[in-house]
Amino acid sequence: SQTIHQWPATLVQPVGSPLSLECTVEGTSNPNLYWYRQAAGRGLQLLFYSIGIDQISSEVPQNLSASRPQDRQFILSSKKLLLSDSGFYLCAWSVGDGNTIYFGEGSWLTVV
Amino acid sequence: AQSVTQLGSHVSVSEGALVLLRCNYSSSVPPYLFWYVQYPNQGLQLLLKYTSAATLVKGINGFEAEFKKSETSFHLTKPSAHMSDAAEYFCAPYNAGNNRKLIWGLGTSLAVNP
Q1: Average pLDDT value for residue range B11-19
Q2: Greater confidence, B42 or B11?
Q3: Fewer beta carbons within 10 angstroms: which end of chain B, N or C?
Q4: 8 Å CB contact of A97 and B31
């Protein structure tokens, strides 16, 4: 069966510090991978999605970036965090077109 | 482009009462429609998915949703609420255009009172 792992679960970082959130999927090949952010009281915002290695699309301009060093690994990064980067970050995966998206457990980021 | 509206950001029901969470999509019929549930501090979990095979879709935990093309709706219901149903619920139609992504509603927070 397929599983998704996302870490760290909780992170408190000072403004201006770097960020690295990691996500790996097991049990499937060539998944579509996603990074979402969920701010308090708001819906899901798609940040990045990737349909393959070296195929990453950014949905919104921001100081975040994403990389996919391996087929089933997706990393969310920032060189300098802003206060507004605080939120709940969710990694997700799907296979094919129009199929169910499966989510990781999420990572709470607090920028102080 | 596809859009979605979830009427009521907060819904409160008594335990044992009917749960009705509303979702309306834009005029273009999406090939797929999803309902997800999010329990506090957790990721999202699929409740059910409409694939045009049947207009009434049954999901997990006793939830079901009915696709009504004439009303452009995909409302989520459960006959009898349980305390464990308290969570955030998201409706998401699939955008079959060039975007080909899920379009997320803002969510409805369901509270269940004893």
Answers
A1: 97
A2: B11
A3: C
A4: no
Contact A98 B104 (CB under 8 A): no
Strands of A8-101 (E only): list them: 10-13, 19-26, 32-38, 44-52, 55-58, 64-70, 73-78, 87-94
B105 or B77, greater pLDDT:
B77
Q: 3-class DSSP state for residue A85?
A: helix
As a whole number of angstroms, the distance between CA A62 and CA A43 comes to 18
Cα A53 from Cα A12, distance rounded (Å): 29
Flag if A100 and B41 touch (Cβ within 8 Å). no
Amino acid at position A18, single letter: P
Q: From CA B23, how far away is CA B13, in angstroms rounded?
A: 18
User: To the nearest whole angstrom, how far is the Cα of B94 from the nearest Cα of chain A?
Assistant: 7
Count CA within 13 A, CB hemisphere, residue B63. 24
* Cβ count near B12 (within 10 Å): 13
DSSP codes joined into one string, B43-77: -EEEEEEE-SS-SEEE-GGG-EEEEEGGGTEEEEE
**Average model confidence (pLDDT) across chain A:** 92
Which whole number is the average pLDDT over A63-83?
95
Rounded average pLDDT over A5-31: 95
